[in-house]
Design goal:
The complex is a heterodimer of chains A (about 160) and B (about 800). Chain A is of the alpha+beta class and about 160 residues long. Helix content of chain A is about 35%, strand content about 15%. In chain A, α2 crosses α5. By secondary structure, chain B is α+β, with helices and mostly antiparallel strands. Chain B is about 30% helix and about 25% strand. Chain B is built from 19 helices and 29 strands. The longest helix of chain B has 28 residues. Classes of the chains: A alpha+beta (about 160), B alpha+beta (about 800). At the A-B interface, α2, α3 and α5 of A face α1 and α17 of B.
């Protein structure tokens, strides 16, 4: 009773991939185990913790609640794709280091993707808005205070970068 | 100029890897490994009658199915009792797979190995286990009643009973001018790291060696345990803790059934095998903590000074006791906090129930003890109509009374003697930070606006850095890299940074030149583990000691080369140089070359070194009798006893008059963990601890129904705080260095969580005007308490 495999095309962090996966293969498992992009983490597998958040067509989505076949053809950004063009830390990633926004780092990829998408639409959030922006992701280590600071710091870095251009 | 690293809030060195998605957590390893999955009991208590695997055999990609019948030798015996204790008179541990009986929902009954996890779970679904359900024991009341038992041969469900007494507490209470009796309860919660457990094993049949990766807080001990369980010589076993996605205590427990079975299957199959725990498994098959009910009887004078304290409590240890009775022992001793109790008597019973077993969760029995003690302090103040801070002050151990001997035995089996601390100063700082004296004005202002606010405070003392030891190895490579290895593990505490700071400080090198490895038995074989806020104290000091030896050797060798007295030399900016003469000296990498009298010069560093002559000349061997080649050293730190950190928290809450929702308006922390290696990291630990404390006070509880089903075994129903629930935390520090270790450090890892339930119960009580004696508290419970108290008033 071998499973039927479906050819699926994913453009991940700008790189096109074609995979053959069963219909039930989660996008998270496909990214992690079929494409080797293990930066996306699974914390609960039912869409509550947000650790597995990736951007699908630019929008944050829980990759544990999506089948890989259901996003055939989509452009996907994972935490690995939130770097700068030259491979350095992107502004959100740099902000997390600057503000001690992570401890164990397991939930961090989901925060990085979520905040990346948020700041694109809200480049200058207040502290209260920054806190709301991360309100759908669980972190068990930091108590969130330094993650809120990381959002504000990332916005600052992005603005500075924008001015530098 | 000396590079000063110790005490600097530098950013973490592990972060670039982790923020970019380049971390290597357990499930990121072993992409080609077979996957394991487990059939787990759906019953809290049952006999296992038979296991029928026939329908599973047709699953594509199935490799193996194992039940208890397949196990033999040590792996078939009960899992080890890790921490025996004379008072634990009826210890019971589980088998790796159920041996005829299951005693909690989630207990593993069969193991499946298949090509991937999806297929392994397909096979699990098709395995039919015949159960004969037995009536379960759920909750402390049922355990005490003992109409049924969890283990046939423990009819009263009592695993342990322990009494400690100093003076005659009952007589002192009887004779006291004032007496109170309270019942105080804390419910079950759990560590709940975002990454669950996981094990990945590789057996090299030709080499007859085993490498196991485990998401553990103690790789060294897992190594010894696996060697015994699997019958593999210990020198053929390596255990590595990769990046670990949080621990908070639950991952100190070992060896788990899965941790034994995955490598066992890898050896048997000659294939790589991996198991990654899913969230539901973590809820029903790892470990919980906190569930305790305390009866406190206290006698005190007109100032609220304790004359006698008698505490009896019940501890729910779940179905098994592999980790012994550490948690209730900690409650029994750490309950005393910063106070002199007068005569003290404490007795607990540790009870079996048909629920997930209990092992330490951050704080480990302290949150319960502090809740019992601090609520008692508040009750005394209420009884006497005195200020709650004043009553505490009246009972404080004074700085000049340090070291203070409680004449009790602590969790490490050593005397409970506080080494240092200035409790009056800590309280004074906290009162200033939160505005304790000015709060009545705040309350009046709120009341005028129709709002209900309250303030509370809670104090704790935490024994940290328990022994027996940790060690470290420090080596200076000839390229100038300083390699530091210590055996204990890391789950987000920033050890790669903090230990690098310690080594950099000792060796006078930039921190960027230091590389730290933790939790890898290939690099360091003797260690205890990361728990009990001990890593900075234990490994921090071990790194300092080992680096100190390296420093001494570097000065000696450089002294020979420069024909100078080592006493006139110093290590700074990566150079050994003559004090006061910055221009003269030898670079540390060159000293590393000189330390190894190799026959072959193959690089630039070796060429540079040829200009110097070291050693005792032709009359002695190139490596002296008491010397070794290489610029490296190993040392161990083993303290005489624990050091005691302390802290005090205050919270201001607002309770909604209609919905009884609790909102934390302010949360203030003053803490004293001695000297800080990296203030940024310590602050982060405090924040995270407070968040878990808030969760434990207002949201998190594990709810079992009467049949032993865990009703909220998911993140949908077990409510961990999001950013919207955790308040902004205001902190202040006090540094009273401990005299017990060279660096003056006390631990900080658990501190933040400890007084959470106590301080929020106090603030809610203050806002509402009635006494909260049970935590956590939900809005509906608070609403019902209001109703009951209104009726009581009427």
């Amino acid at each position: 009773m071998a499973e039927t495999l479906h050819q699926t095309r994913l453009v991940v962090n700008g790189v096109p991939h074609t995979v053959r996966v069963p219909a039930r293969r989660l996008l998270a498992d496909c990214l992690r185990h079929d494409l080797g992009l293990t930066g996306t983490h699974l914390g609960c597998e039912h869409g509550v913790c947000g650790a597995c958040t990736v951007l699908v067509g630019g929008l944050p989505m829980r990759s544990c609640l999506l089948f890989a076949v259901s996003v055939d053809g989509a452009e996907i950004t994972t935490v690995e794709g939130c770097r700068t063009a030259d491979g350095g830390l992107g502004p959100v990633q740099q902000a997390f280091q600057d503000c001690h926004g992570l401890q164990c780092g397991f939930c961090t990829p989901g925060f990085v993707t979520t905040i990346t998408a948020y700041l694109r639409d809200h480049p200058d959030p207040t502290e209260e808005q920054a806190r709301q922006a991360i309100g759908g992701n669980l972190c068990r280590c930091t108590g969130y205070q330094n993650i809120v600071a990381s959002v504000l710091r990332a916005a600052e870095l992005q603005r500075r970068e924008g001015r530098g251009r | 100029m000396t590079t000063r690293m110790f005490g600097e809030p530098i950013v973490r060195r592990e972060d670039p890897r982790l923020v970019a998605g380049d971390g290597r957590y357990l499930d990121d390893l072993g992409s080609g490994a077979l996957a394991a999955a487990f059939v787990r009991s759906p019953h809290a208590h049952a006999r296992v009658v038979d296991v029928d695997v026939s329908r599973a055999l047709e699953v594509d990609g199935l490799v193996a199915i194992y039940t208890y019948e397949d196990l033999e030798g040590p792996v078939a015996e009960p899992l080890p009792l890790l921490i025996p204790h004379p008072r634990l008179h009826a210890p019971r541990t589980a088998h790796a797979l159920a041996n005829g009986a299951v005693r909690h929902v989630g207990e593993p009954v069969a193991m499946v190995v298949a090509r991937d996890r999806y297929l392994a779970e397909d096979a699990c679904e098709r395995i039919a286990v015949g159960y004969q359900p037995l009536p379960p024991v759920v909750g402390l009341d049922a355990a005490v009643r003992a109409e049924r038992s969890v283990h046939d041969d423990v009819p009263d469900n009592v695993a342990a009973r322990m009494l400690q007494e100093v003076g005659d507490a009952r007589a002192a209470i009887q004779a006291a001018p004032h007496r109170l009796e309270l019942e105080l309860e804390i419910e079950r919660s759990a560590s709940m790291p975002i990454e669950g457990r996981g094990v990945y094993a590789r057996w090299d049949a030709a080499d007859r060696s085993l490498r196991v990766y485990s998401s553990t807080q103690t790789s060294t001990s897992v190594r010894f345990a696996l060697a015994v369980k699997l019958g593999v010589p210990v020198d053929r076993v390596e255990v590595v803790a990769p990046d670990v996605g949080g621990g908070f205590g639950v991952k100190i427990m070992h060896p788990w059934p899965e941790e034994v079975l995955v490598p066992w299957a890898a050896i048997r199959l000659g294939r790589e095998v991996k198991w990654t725990e899913d969230r539901r498994e973590h809820f029903v098959a790892s470990a919980h903590e906190r569930g305790q009910r305390h009866t406190v009887r206290v006698g005190f004078d007109d100032d609220g000074r304790l004359l006698g304290l008698d505490v009896e409590f019940l501890h729910d240890n779940g179905a098994y006791t592999p980790y012994g009775i550490i948690v209730p022992i900690i409650t029994a001793t750490q309950l005393l906090g910063p106070y002199k109790p007068g005569a003290y008597r404490v007795e607990f019973r540790s009870l079996y129930t048909n629920t997930v077993m209990v092992t330490p969760y951050r704080g480990a029995g302290r949150p319960q003890g502090v809740f019992a003690m601090e609520r008692t302090m508040d009750a005394i103040a209420g009884h006497l109509g005195r200020d709650r801070a004043q009553v505490r002050e009246a009972n404080f151990i004074q700085p000049e009374e340090m070291p203070y001997d409680h004449r009790l035995t602590f969790q490490d089996g050593r005397p409970l003697i506080y080494d240092s601390g200035d409790y009056p100063a800590t309280l004074a700082k906290l009162k200033r930070l939160v505005g304790w004296e000015e709060f009545e004005a705040v309350r009046e202002q709120a009341r005028a606006a129709g709002r209900r606010v309250g303030i509370g405070l809670a104090c704790y003392v935490e024994g940290t850095g328990v022994g027996p030891y940790e060690g470290a190895h420090v080596r200076v490579e000839t390229d100038g890299t300083v390699l530091v290895a210590t055996g204990l593990t890391t789950q987000g505490q920033g050890h790669e940074t903090a230990f690098a700071q310690v080594a950099a400080e000792e060796l006078g090198v930039p921190v960027e030149r230091v590389t730290v490895v933790t939790g890898d038995t290939r690099r360091f074989k003797y260690a205890v583990g990361t728990f009990a806020s001990r890593a900075a104290v234990m490994s921090g000091n071990a790194v300092a000691l080992a680096a100190g030896k390296v420093r001494a050797k570097a000065l000696r060798i450089a002294g020979e080369a420069l024909e100078a007295d080592p006493g006139d030399l110093e290590l700074a900016d990566g150079m050994v140089r003559v004090k006061g003469a910055p221009g003269t000296g030898i670079a540390l990498p060159t000293v590393a070359v000189l330390a190894n009298p190799l026959r072959y010069a193959f690089d630039e560093q070796a060429r540079l070194a040829t200009q110097f002559v070291v050693g005792g000349g032709l009359q002695s061997p190139p490596v002296a009798e008491d010397d070794e080649p290489g610029l490296e050293a190993t040392d161990y730190y083993s303290p005489i006893r624990s050091t005691f950190a302390n802290g005090m928290h205050a919270a201001v809450v607002e309770t909604d008059p209609e919905t009884a929702e609790v909102r934390i308006l302010r949360y203030c922390v003053v803490h004293d963990c001695g000297r800080l290696i990296n203030p940024r990291i310590v602050e982060g630990q405090i924040h995270g601890g407070v968040a878990q404390g808030v969760g434990g006070a207002l949201y998190e509880r594990l709810v079992y129904d009467e049949s032993g089903q865990l009703l909220n075994a998911s993140f949908m129903d077990f409510l961990m705080p999001y950013a919207s629930e955790v308040p902004k935390i205001e902190t202040d520090h006090l540094e009273t260095p401990t005299p017990l270790n060279p660096l003056g450090i006390k631990g900080a890892g658990e501190a933040g969580v400890i007084p959470g339930a106590a301080v929020l119960a106090a603030a809610i009580s203050d806002a509402e005007g009635f006494f909260v004696d049970r935590m956590p508290i939900s809005p509906s419970e608070l609403w019902e308490l209001r109703t009951r108290n209104r009726k009581g008033d009427a």
